[in-house]
Amino acid sequence: MIDFNKQKNRSDLAPWPPIEELEETRVVSGAPKHFSRLDVAEYVSEHMLGIWECAEGVIEWIELGDELHDIISVSLRITEKNGAPTVFSVGKVVFTQKGEQVRGEVLLRVRKKHSYQRR
Q1: Which residues are paired to 37 by β-bridges?
Q2: I want to staple 74 with a disulfide (CB 3.0 to 4.6 A). Which of 36, 64, 108, 111 is the partner?
Q3: Which of these, 4, 2, 11, lies nearest to 109 by C-alpha position?
Q4: Residue 26 in 3-state DSSP?
């Protein structure tokens, strides 16, 4: 069993590859860098579960899998393809599906629990 309420503030997050090098991803503004700790699987597995954190910036991407995002610190504004922006703050949960076009604006360094399934 993994108790994320006890683990969410751990500081053992490792850098992930630069965002601008990721498939289907584009940095629009800022210099966002992201970090993670995977509790299930390894980077670029069919299923990943862990904590993800990103520094301020604006990123656009196309989801390569289904992902459940559970915001555990600060805030993130997500704008869907239809142009509707939504601000997610602590305690908010959002689900994105494979193929969705998403624009994420990291307003302040954000941290989330994530469960990702590539299908």
Answers
A1: 51
A2: 108
A3: 11
A4: strand
Strand pairing class (66-73; 110-117) = antiparallel
- Residue at 100: amino acid letter: E
* pLDDT by position in tens, the chain (length 119): 777 666 666 778 999 999 999 989 999 999 999 999 888 877 777 888 889 999 999 999 999 899 999 988 877 888 877 888 888 888 888 899 999 998 999 988 888 888 888 86
Q: What are phi and psi of 97, to 5 degrees?
A: -110, 155
Give the CATH class of 12-117: mainly beta
Q: pTM surpassing 0.70?
A: yes
For the chain, the domains span 12-117
